[in-house]
């Protein structure tokens, strides 16, 4: 069995990293604009946030929504697949608080 075949490795690839859990938690309450995300996650650079959002979009965890109004703006939101991860993320948060 290869490393990619272990479901836990796929899960960790999707939720792992320094910024991804914070992105999931920040987007849990609903769609956010880029600057809202950047302000909500202290220390994340513009480039890293952009890269993380693109990767999460590629993985099917985040959806990018463009609003073609007088001034174009973009929001990001969790997909249904990402919401199924929330119990696991909350469990990890609880474990982290207790240990």
Write structural notes for this entry:
The protein is α+β, with helices and mostly antiparallel strands and 99 residues long. The protein has a single domain (3-98), classed as Winged helix-like DNA-binding domain superfamily/Winged helix DNA-binding domain (Arc Repressor Mutant, subunit A, Orthogonal Bundle). The protein is built from six helices and three strands, in the order H-H-E-H-H-E-E-H-H. It has helices at 7-15, 20-27, 34-40, 46-58, 80-83, 86-98, and strands at residues 32-33, 62-67, 73-78. It has a three-stranded antiparallel sheet with strand order 1-3-2. A hairpin with a 5-residue loop joins strand 2 and strand 3 (73-78). The radius of gyration is 15 Å and the shape is globular. The protein starts with 6 loop residues before the first helix and ends with a helix.
Task: Jot down its keywords.
single chain; 99 residues; globular; DNA binding; Transcriptional regulator, HxlR family; WH_DNA-bd_sf
Strand content: 5-15%
| Separate helix tally | 6
* CATH fold call: Arc Repressor Mutant, subunit A
* Unreliable runs: none
The succession of helices and strands, N to C, reads HHEHHEEHH
**CATH 4th-level superfamily:** Winged helix-like DNA-binding domain superfamily/Winged helix DNA-binding domain
Instruction: Give the fraction of residues assigned to helices.
Output: 40-55%
Which architecture name does CATH use?
Answer: Orthogonal Bundle
Main sheet: which strands, in order across? Answer: 1-3-2
Cα-atom radius of gyration: 15 Å
Number of strands: 3
In total, the number of domains comes to 1
Taken from the alpha-carbon principal axes, the silhouette is globular
Name the structural class. alpha+beta
Largest sheet: 3 strands, antiparallel
In the CATH scheme, the class would be: Mainly Alpha
Kindly, what is the distance between the CA atoms of the first and last residues, rounded to a whole number of angstroms? 32 Å
What average pLDDT do the residues reach? 90
